[in-house]
Every structure is written in C-alpha cells, then in structure tokens.
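TA notes, week 10

Several of you asked for a full example with nothing omitted. So below is the full record: structure tokens for the whole chain, then the designed sequence directly under it. When grading your own attempts, check the secondary structure regions first.
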C-alpha cells in the first residue's frame, strides 16, 4: 500500500498518474496547501520542504520498514524502480527517461510555475516578468514539440515517467499564454495522454478531492507566497 500525501496541483497529478497506470494500491491523504496543512509536523516529518506530493511505501521491496519519499521526480523514479514499469529497461532507454524527467523538474515545471505566479497570482502585474516567463514557457513547449516530431513519447517509443512528469504542466496551457495548435507534435502527444484511462481516473479523483483553486483569497496567498525560513 502506498500512502500518498497529495493536493490537486501539477506535481500532485504526476503521482496519481503513475499509481493509476501501474494499478498500485494507494490511499490519498489530502494536504490542503491553501490552508497551510503542509506545515503540520506529521507532514513535515516525511516532506521537510513542506511541499506536496510525498509518499510512504508501506511495503518496500526490501521487506523492511516503510519508506518515505518527497519531491515528485524522486517519487516517480522510486515507483518506477519498485515496479519495473515506465522507465527504459535498457541503458539508452533509461538515460532518455531520466534526461526528460530531469528536464521537466529543472525547466518546464519551475518556468511554468513562475508563469502562473506572475500572470495569475501576483498582486502587482509586472509586464517584464510576465513576458519573460510566458516566452520561456513557449520556448520549452518548442523543445518538446521538436522532440515529439520523431518520437511517440518523450523518452522514445513508450510512455514513461518523463511523460507523466510533463503532462500535468501542459494541462493549463491557456493560463500559460500558449496555444497547442502552435505545436502540432506536442498536441498529438497531449491528446494521446489525455484519453488514457489512467489519466481520466487520476483527474476524476482530483475533482472529487478539490474543486476550489488553492489561491482563492488573501490568506491563501500569504500562506503560499509569503513563506520564509521563519515560517
């Protein structure tokens, strides 16, 4: 059994995508980040960066004590290695999977996240910041589009954790100031993942858990964007 500490964000969706695809038994523990539940001591014990998602694997492959993992990329890699699924089995396939997983973690996610912040949430609209991150998001979409011109998925012929990492960050493309029609190979990939049964199940669970944006008032804005080392 996997205990998943989750909220309805792109990083949270990555893990439900994997768990649904792999058909691993899991239970969701909602962590409402707009209400500050990520600062609860019990959660910080497994996620010291006070961010979702995090997991506790109650039945690790070594048969030992439960294993906790935080950071979405680390969780995807852990689950892929646990199950032997959605990661290249040969050297080159594994390298490609890790390249594109880390590309998402270091590029697409952070840049799209800053895009969301400055275009949607910042109390002061700063044109330079908005333009900077909308343009960088556009560049990254272009990188994906070129890769997908001659590959079915990011790591090659097979769906992998690299795709699960990237897909939830493309879902809000309109909020990011992008048009999928400008990126036909990316759109083909996006549409293929959107219709997978596991994707539909994962996003249906998100709807059941939360229908309200995490940032919906001044208090949630303060909680999410006002953190310092003293928090």
């Amino acid at each position: 059994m996997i205990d998943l500490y989750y909220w309805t964000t792109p990083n949270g969706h990555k893990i439900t995508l994997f768990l649904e695809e792999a058909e691993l038994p899991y239970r969701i523990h909602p962590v409402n980040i707009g209400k500050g539940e990520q600062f609860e001591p019990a959660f910080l014990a497994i996620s010291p960066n006070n961010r979702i998602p995090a997991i506790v694997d109650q039945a690790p492959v070594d048969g030992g004590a439960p294993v906790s993992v935080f950071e979405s990329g680390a969780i995807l890699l852990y689950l892929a290695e646990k199950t032997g699924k959605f990661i290249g089995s040969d050297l080159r396939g594994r390298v490609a999977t890790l390249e594109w997983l880390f590309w998402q973690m270091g590029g697409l996610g952070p840049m799209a996240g800053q895009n969301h912040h400055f275009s949607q949430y910042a109390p002061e609209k700063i044109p330079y910041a908005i333009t900077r991150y909308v343009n960088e998001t556009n560049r990254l979409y272009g990188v994906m589009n070129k890769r997908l011109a001659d590959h079915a998925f990011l790591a090659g012929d097979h769906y992998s954790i690299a795709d699960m990492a990237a897909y939830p960050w493309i879902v809000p493309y309109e909020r990011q100031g992008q048009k999928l029609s400008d990126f036909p190979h990316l759109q083909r990939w996006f549409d293929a993942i959107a219709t997978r049964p596991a994707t539909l199940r994962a996003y249906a669970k998100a709807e059941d858990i939360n229908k309200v944006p995490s940032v919906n008032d001044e208090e949630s804005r303060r909680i999410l964007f006002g953190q310092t080392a003293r928090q």
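Residues 91-194 form a domain with the Glutathione S-transferase Yfyf (Class Pi); Chain A, domain 2 fold (CATH 1.20.1050.10). Use that as a sanity check on your answer.
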